[in-house]
């Protein structure tokens, strides 16, 4: 593919709700441009976008895939982003480097939660938006209803540039508002069509729409506004000149009706993108900061190189692939660039243009373009590479918090190192995936955006690193505490022929303030116990607190007073006082009305109005306390406090309740006492689990 200057480049991101038709639309775009001979299908696993094993196995988009095509003298870099909530991090990363967002809405689904989410994300990245309504050829579709729904959600400036003249099976005719034409398409996926002037009622309809479009365009330019009133309209050339700025200003949001499956209306969408959509020149300044934190601007015209890595992935036979956008200067093979986040230099290896799984080598990528480099040594998703003379860090994407968790068990002894390396590598490639070793429950916890996200990540771990793992529900980090006082005296005495062991420890315990942890103090008087043994007693007490007494959980919020004891001039030693302190604490704890505390999470569930009742009922069945219900645009945000025990796989249940239209976030709040009726069950479960270990 030839090199293109920045004004001729269009970087656009295809986003939307799951199953909106983005991948099929991208396939039709490539077919129109002659990049592929025939359109592939998701079912057969033959599309350009979904070429990774996990995508073929699951029949969904998992990765944001870079596709390139040439149309009307412009180079289009298409980023086909997943629609599933599980992979929203991929969509956000792709929007981060786009110059415009093409938001795809399925005519059968209408505007869904994922549509709203991607619209908000595009706003946060200050991107102009185009709506594409797909699946017009499906039964029982109503384009006008979807258009009205979009206007309710996003504003009355949502405006159709093409309209279907009939929907459902057999759909093949469009009304083109810009050209005042009726387009009749063949339904053989060729994209071929014939044009005819709009006549009769259609001519009246398009004339009214054309005038409305002129008003939108004139609104973005004072000079055009004056001409509009002076001439009672604008010429076609003036309209075209003002259209680009109107899109940039968000004065109106164009809507296109298409059938991606039959390649109907796609060529008109491509015409619009190539002629009117944003180029890197429209967003030539981006904000960054120096390594010291000073805010600066990077300009497209700057000579020094600045590039942002928005995705890393591993491909068999190639190794690590880094996808990036060039924001200033140019990137060349063999160039030495600086990574401020890691304080290292990187030597750029082979550069490529990408078109799905196809790679075309190049020696240089200019400002505004998107491409890939192989085997960057220490650069990962979200990193900036720049000229060493002018170090700069571009802002990385703020990824959503995980909302589902699992515990991993490494099944093969000796694979622990590979297991750890694999998890770290996957985390660097996908920042929306988290993992940690939880010392409280003694498990490796992985967290992600949904059940499929975790499943796909584990498949990658097995496939790439050869590690056999299984996932089990994570243990709930219960904690033990007391609500009363206790006192104990414990004597440890051991005589076995040699040096003996002797220690006697007297302890009092009482409840501590919430969040105070373990507060150990001594109030010894006299010479019954040498103060040198105080740390030994404290060590024994802390060991008991880590092991727990009633359910094997960490003990918290307890005040301990070591107030007296006895010692032997010969047999008293460190280990004896550790053991005595350990048992004295356990005895005192058992007297002080011990109980369990459970972690409570605040969850915010965003759902359509018609799902509120079902979600509220489900939350109540999970011992949830409803804290409030507030409007969030055209959705309702339910805030509740729910015990962690009740949240396992909640995201899966929520999708079932809302037909995948609901989303939620989780934030830890505090630990609270477990209800008495449940406490015995949890203690029995803990004892049974320890018996099998």
Salient structural properties:
693 residues; alpha+beta; Rossmann fold; Elongation Factor Tu (Ef-tu), domain 3; Alpha-Beta Plaits; 5 domains; 16 helices; 37 strands; 29% helix; T_Tr_GTP-bd_dom; Transl_B-barrel_sf
Quick recap of the structure?
It comes from Actomonas aquatica. This protein is of the alpha+beta class. The protein contains 16 helices and 37 strands.
Would you write up a description of this structure?
By secondary structure, the chain is an alpha+beta fold. It has 5 domains: 6-198 and 252-282, P-loop containing nucleotide triphosphate hydrolases (Rossmann fold, 3-Layer(aba) Sandwich), CATH 3.40.50; 285-386, Beta Barrel (Elongation Factor Tu (Ef-tu), domain 3), CATH 2.40.30.10; 404-472, Alpha-Beta Plaits; 480-592, Ribosomal Protein S5, domain 2; 598-688, Alpha-Beta Plaits, CATH 3.30.70.240. Helix content is 29%, strand content 33%. It has 16 helices and 37 strands. A 7-stranded mixed sheet has the order 2-3-1-4-5-11-6, sandwiched between helices. A 6-stranded antiparallel sheet has the order 20-19-22-15-14-23, covered by helices on one side. Strands 28, 32, 34, 35, 36 and 37 form a 6-stranded mixed sheet that branches. Helix 6 (200-219) packs across helix 7 (222-231). The two termini are 61 Å apart. The relative contact order is 0.09. The mean pLDDT is 92.
Task: Give the second-level CATH assignment, the architecture of the largest domain.
Answer: 3-Layer(aba) Sandwich
- CATH domain class of the largest domain: Alpha Beta
If strands are numbered along the chain, what order do they take across the biggest sheet?
2-3-1-4-5-11-6
pLDDT average, as an integer? 92
Structural class estimated from helices and strands: alpha+beta
């Amino acid at each position: 593919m030839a090199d293109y200057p920045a004004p001729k480049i269009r970087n656009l991101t295809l986003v939307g709700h799951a199953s909106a038709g983005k991948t099929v639309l991208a396939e039709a775009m490539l077919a129109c441009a002659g990049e592929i001979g025939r359109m592939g299908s998701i079912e057969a696993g033959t599309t350009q976008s979904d070429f990774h094993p996990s995508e073929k196995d699951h029949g969904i988009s998992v990765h944001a895939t870079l596709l390139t095509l040439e149309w009307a003298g412009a180079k289009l870099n298409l980023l086909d982003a997943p629609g599933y909530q599980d992979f929203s991090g991929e969509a956000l990363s792709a929007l981060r480097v786009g110059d415009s967002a093409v938001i795809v809405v399925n005519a059968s689904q209408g505007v869904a939660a994922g549509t709203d989410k991607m619209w908000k994300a595009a706003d946060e990245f200050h991107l102009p938006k185009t709506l594409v309504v797909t699946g017009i050829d499906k039964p029982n579709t109503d384009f006008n209803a979807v258009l009205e729904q979009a206007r309710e959600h996003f504003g009355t400036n949502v405006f159709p540039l093409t309209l279907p003249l009939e929907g459902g099976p057999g759909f093949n005719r469009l009304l083109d508002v810009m050209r005042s034409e009726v387009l009749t398409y063949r339904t053989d996926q060729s994209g071929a069509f014939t044009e005819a002037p709009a006549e009769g009622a259609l001519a009246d309809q398009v004339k009214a729409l054309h005038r409305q479009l002129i008003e939108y365009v004139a609104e973005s330019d004072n000079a055009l506004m004056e001409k509009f009133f002076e001439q009672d309209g604008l010429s076609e050339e003036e309209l075209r000149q003002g259209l680009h700025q109107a899109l940039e200003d968000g004065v109106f949001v164009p809507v296109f009706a298409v059938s991606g499956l039959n390649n109907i209306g796609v060529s008109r969408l491509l015409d619009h993108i190539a002629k009117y959509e944003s180029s890197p020149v429209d967003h030539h300044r981006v904000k960054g900061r120096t390594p010291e934190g000073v805010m600066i601007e990077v300009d497209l015209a700057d000579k020094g190189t600045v590039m942002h890595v928005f995705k890393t992935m591993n491909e068999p036979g190639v190794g690590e692939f880094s996808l990036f956008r060039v924001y200033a200067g140019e990137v060349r093979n063999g160039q030495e660039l600086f990574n401020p986040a890691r304080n290292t230099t990187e030597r750029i290896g082979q550069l490529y243009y990408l078109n799905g799984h196809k790679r075309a080598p190049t020696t240089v990528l200019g400002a505004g373009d998107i491409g890939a480099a192989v085997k960057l040594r220490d650069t990962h998703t979200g990193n900036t590479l720049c000229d060493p003379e002018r170090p700069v860090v571009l802002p990385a994407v703020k990824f959503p918090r995980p909302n589902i968790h699992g515990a991993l068990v490494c099944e093969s002894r000796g694979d622990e190192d590979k297991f750890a390396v694999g998890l770290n590598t996957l985390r660097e490639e996908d920042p929306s995936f988290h993992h940690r070793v939880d010392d409280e429950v003694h498990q490796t916890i992985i967290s992600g955006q949904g059940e499929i996200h975790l499943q796909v990540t584990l498949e990658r771990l097995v496939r790439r690193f050869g590690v056999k793992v299984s996932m089990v529900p994570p243990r709930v980090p219960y904690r033990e505490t007391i609500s009363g006082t206790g006192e104990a005296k414990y004597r440890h005495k051991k005589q076995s022929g040699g040096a003996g062991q002797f220690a006697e420890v007297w302890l009092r315990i009482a409840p501590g303030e919430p969040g105070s942890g373990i507060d150990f103090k001594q109030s010894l008087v006299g010479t019954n116990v040498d103060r040198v043994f105080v740390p030994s007693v404290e060590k024994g007490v802390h060991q008991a607190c880590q092991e727990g007494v009633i359910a094997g959980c960490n003990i918290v919020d307890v005040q301990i007073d070591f107030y007296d004891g006895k010692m032997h001039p010969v047999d008293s030693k460190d280990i004896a006082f550790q053991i005595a302190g350990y048992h004295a604490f356990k005895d005192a704890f058992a007297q002080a009305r011990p109980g369990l505390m459970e972690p409570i999470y605040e969850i915010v569930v965003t759902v359509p109005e018609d799902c509120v009742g079902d979600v509220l009922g489900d939350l109540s069945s999970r011992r949830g306390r409803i804290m409030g219900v507030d409007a969030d645009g055209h959705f309702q945000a339910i805030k509740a406090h729910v015990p962690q025990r009740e949240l396992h796989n909640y995201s899966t249940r929520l999708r079932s309740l809302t037909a995948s239209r609901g989303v939620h976030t989780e934030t830890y709040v505090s630990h609270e006492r477990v209800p008495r009726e449940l406490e015995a069950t949890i203690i029995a479960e803990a004892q049974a689990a320890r018996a099998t270990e």
